[in-house]
Amino acid sequence: MPDKRPLYQVILDDLKEKIETGYYAPEAQLPTEVELAEQYGVSRITSKRALIELERDGMIYRKRGSGSYVKPREEPEPVRQDEIRSAGPIISMILPYMATSELEYIKGAADYLDSKGYYLSIHNSNWSKEKEKELLVRLPRSGINGIILYPLSTISNVETVNALSSNGYPLVTVDQYFDKLNVSSVVSDNYSGGYMTASRLIELGHERIAFVSSISIEYRSSVRDRYLGYCQAMKDHRIAIDPELVYTDFYRDVDDSNAREFYQSMLASLLAKRVTAIQAEHDLLAADLLKNALESGIGVPSELSIIGFDNHEISGHVEVPLTTVAQNYYHLSRKAAELIVDIIENRNTGHQMIKIPVTMIERQSTAVRHVRA
């Protein structure tokens, strides 16, 4: 059966195994980005991302101009039983995966909860609907005082989330919100983000702007709001929304064996439809589109402007640094922690949605539309 992991994940998993088994001892230097790229037959961007993710996981540290080194493991101090018995109220945070932005989510919530005498426990659903549901059912039964949920999607486990909220259990979502449910949420202002990116492209002279998302519009409220912001900007500038320029829900069709062919075919189709700019769902997708555009001989931004979303670390390290939209993950989770403490301590069960402003960061992947002679 073919390995469907992303190429960077293959490198990441191999390096993790070699560190955990002692092949690379503490303080040992790892191969460079160039050496890893040659070893695995990938681009330097891919090998760089593997090292970035390894650093995020706390397994290595990097010295500027020197390289990457295995981080010595710190032995945790044993926890005394009397400390466990005296622990204060506990809030659990459920995340779909762990990366740099998720560390900011953890820090924001932990800083506030710690100041209020609460403990924070972290749980990873690992992109599994079943695992997310199991956590949502088990944690309240085990005595956890409340949950901050970063949902897998807003069409998954709706019945479980609704049951918790309807029964009065303290629950707040971050990043996404559930329509029609009485669940408070703290989200980035994705609508404004989608609107400002489309508006900026229009200001640069682009009218044939594609909206590209690997998942369906309805799958996550964040993506839906970015799309609706894109649509409103087009409407406000009196540009017709062309459904043929909206590409979504193709993540099941792409793996390492066909990614290059898939994206280059998509780009060729978009150019044939006179598209001059792409608004991508997130930075990793934007980076894939950028890489394949350059490999196809498409000039970025001379022929095609590309905008991402999230201000992922990779956005500043690709061949043409990506214009993107930054979210304040720390502030998101801190506000969520404030909300859930308010629900617990003041029995404030009224539905609230707090939107955190986003910021556009312009880099070299966007430019004034080139008018063909």
TrEMBL record:
The keyword Phosphoprotein does not apply. InterPro entries: LacI/GalR-like_sensor, Peripla_BP_I, Tscrpt_reg_HTH_GntR, WH-like_DNA-bd_sf, WH_DNA-bd_sf. Residues 5-73 form the HTH gntR-type domain. This is Transcriptional regulator. The gene is rliB. The keyword Zinc-finger does not apply. It comes from Paenibacillus cisolokensis. Keywords: DNA-binding, Transcription, Transcription regulation. It holds the Pfam family GntR. It comes from the Bacteria.
